[in-house]
Amino acid sequence: MSSNPTILVVEDEILIRLALVDIFEGAGFVVLEAGDGPEAIKFIDTHADNIGILLTDIRLGEGPCGWDVARHARSQLEDLPIVFVSGDSADDWSEEGIERSVMLAKPVPDAELLAAVRNGLQSTVGSSGK
Predict the structure, then answer these.
(1) What is the reported pLDDT for 58?
(2) All domains of the chain, ordered by start, with CATH?
(3) Cβ distance 94 to 67 under 8 Å?
């Protein structure tokens, strides 16, 4: 198993996606990137064994949204940590019913993003107190 966790970053805005890739690669993560829901679902279907955490925007243009991507990921990886990042969908988070996930409102400082991802990964190893 690789010592560097793999994160699937799902973001439809290219500049934001590239910035996220830079942040996570700089922190030692292996990054898979998807620009929309269908591409993300394809990554999940073909790389499920390698994905350690999902970070997704909610609004992804045409097709499946971030909630749909997260549900699909959890259908294959029930313990997958999920971090949602959105500019306007935070109020929908509690009613969407995605357990064991975190919602961050854009814009998010790099350190806060990294902390949320690391906390999510630690919770799957059983080191979380909750």
Answers:
(1) 93
(2) 6-124 (3.40.50.2300)
(3) no
Task: Report the Cα 21 to chain-centroid distance in Å.
Answer: 12
pLDDT exceeds cutoff 70 at 38: yes
pLDDT digits (tens, 9 = 90+) for 64-106: 999 999 999 999 999 999 999 988 766 777 777 788 899 898 8
The burial class, CB within 10 Å (0-12 / 13-18 / 19+), for 40 is buried
Cis amide linkage into residue 81, ω under 30° from 0:
no
Rounded to two decimals, the pTM is 0.89
Distance, CA of 34 to chain centre? 11
Looking at residue 12, the DSSP 8-state letter turns out to be S
C-alpha span between 124 and 59 (Å, rounded): 26
Q: Which residues contact 41 (CB under 8 A, 6 or more apart)?
A: 64, 68, 69, 72
Q: Name residue 16's amino acid.
A: I
Other C-beta atoms closer than 10 Å to the C-beta of 17 total 18
